Amino acid sequence: MLNRGVTPDSLPQDVERLRADRTDPRALAVALKQHDWEAVVDLACYSGAEAAAAVDLLRGRTGRYVFIGTGQVYLVRTEVRRPSREGDYAGPLLPEPPAGTRDHDNWRYGIGKREAEDVLAEAWSRSRFPYTSLRLPMVHSPRDHYGRIHNYLLRLLDGGPILLPQGGDLSVQHVLGDDVVRLICCLLGTEAGVGEAFNLAQPDILTVEGALGVMAEAAGVPLRVHRVSRSTLDAEGLLPACSPFSDPWMSALDPSRAAAVLGFQGTPMREYLPRLVEHYARSALPPPAGYSQRDRELALMNPSVGGA
């Protein structure tokens, strides 16, 4: 495992730790020079420059390089289809949003991941650098440091309602973290999918309200929602915390190609959401940061409650 060593990890002690800031090519070279690698899984590559450094250091020294990409490579396109397919990657891109905005941060993330993928695809074309890109949507697991399911559950348990934007729901097609891990483990040591990119996602498609209904049923509480214009929620700074699934920068991906070529089998959301709700319901975790705005949400729905 290679990282900066800043955040404690829970891996077994016999896992070797290498220390470097991967954005520093010199430090990365020092850390990696002592070994060749059967396989590399890159979880923290966010730009073309970082991908190029990895290619330079690992060319001829690894049998497999798995790049963890993102569905946001589609969301920076001018025409977004939901769910997105691998063939939707090519085409004109959105203009750069104003700096300092949340749209700019998300656009920059998607553009950086595209630049990294393009570097890897070029390295495959030129020298058969053995990369595979896995494009992920929102990933759910008990280890989600954003606490998105936990955020929803707390709002369900406090009686609701949950704030949602007016104008219809986005399609929800996310992925369970365990399914991603299983596929990566299956890929290592094989040549399946080398030189290609694949979407990973659950097989079922839900609406936001449909997904919330599954959570509410699992929690044993009624689902109550209150819809407000998206412009109001944006102006109040309540999105995406009040409803992470309503974020327009949340991708929905078609996993059919990964299923056909790699044998990927995603767990349906209707199956894994109740398990995650149960996990958070019995955990003693503190409320996620996004729940701190709950008073403002309630005040928006019912001004008479004030800051209660």
Q: What are the segments in which pLDDT stays under 50 over at least 5 consecutive residues? A: none
Q: Whole-Å distance between the termini?
A: 46 Å
Q: Given the helix and strand composition, which structural class is it?
A: alpha/beta
Strand order of the largest sheet: 3-4-5-10
| Strand percentage | 5-15%
Radius of gyration: 21 Å
Summarize the entry for a quick read.
The protein is α/β, with parallel strands linked by helices and 308 residues long. 38% of the residues lie in helices and 13% in strands.
Account of the 3D structure:
It is a single chain. The protein is an alpha/beta fold and 308 residues long. The chain is built from eleven helices and twelve strands. The chain has a four-stranded parallel sheet with strand order 3-4-5-10. β3, α2 and β4 (65-70) form a beta-alpha-beta unit. α2 (48-58) runs parallel beside α4 (102-127) and α7 crosses α10 (269-282). The protein starts with a strand and ends in a 7-residue tail after the last helix. The model has no long low-confidence stretch (mean pLDDT 95).
